[in-house]
Design goal:
alpha+beta; two-stranded antiparallel sheet; 6 helices
């Protein structure tokens, strides 16, 4: 069971490190079923924190984009394995911060796992295609290439499935990601980032 008897203070994850926001301020998130119960304290981030995240994502983008897609897929498969081991914890986090019944929360965790599994498999299916050319002795083809840094702003009502739905395709495609969860449901974001960090 997720322990919230002593609520933790959670940090931002920027450039591979957990760190406090520039403001040094935090805000509490309460369990909607028991509003006197604090789930955790989360960073009150400022524009400078966002700029730091953008800089870190740009710094990492070339190396990530140059990694072969099957290797990126292997990383997503590893994240999937970790999420399977932590599925109950993930579901409990959704329940205590968002108020979804535990069975529905577990369904959301399974949906997130399905999304990550599908995206991981795309590491071997990022095909381009050839097309006829109007010119003689000319081959026309397409290649799928990363677009760079992608920003995700996600809602509170599906705090794990929607981020997975956006995050996994971005990562497998070779993009780096800045992820800003809904301020009402940041614990699920922390748990998801911990999985990818591990």
């Amino acid at each position: 069971m997720t322990d919230i008897s002593s609520p933790k203070t959670h940090q931002n994850f920027i450039g591979g490190k957990w760190q406090d926001s520039v403001s040094g301020q935090t805000y509490p998130v309460a369990n909607p079923a028991h509003t006197s119960q604090v789930v955790g304290h989360f960073q009150s981030s400022l524009p400078q924190d966002a700029e730091n995240a953008v800089h870190a994502a740009h710094s990492a983008s070339k190396e990530w984009a140059n990694m072969p897609a099957p290797q990126r897929g292997a990383i997503l498969y590893k994240a999937l394995d970790i999420m399977e081991r932590r599925a109950q914890e993930m579901a409990e986090s959704i329940t205590i911060e968002e108020g979804k019944p535990i069975a529905d929360a577990m369904g959301e965790v399974k949906r997130a796992m399905n999304i990550i599994e599908y995206a991981a498999g795309e590491g071997r299916r990022l095909f381009g295609y050839t097309t006829p050319s109007e010119l003689p002795d000319t081959i026309a083809y397409t290649m799928k290439r990363p677009i760079g840094v992608v920003a995700l702003i996600t809602p509170w009502n599906f705090p794990l499935a929607i981020p997975a739905w956006k995050l996994a395709p971005c990562l497998i495609s070779g993009n780096t990601v800045i992820y800003k969860p809904a301020s009402a449901t940041p614990l699920s974001a922390v748990k998801l980032v911990e999985i990818f960090e591990e």
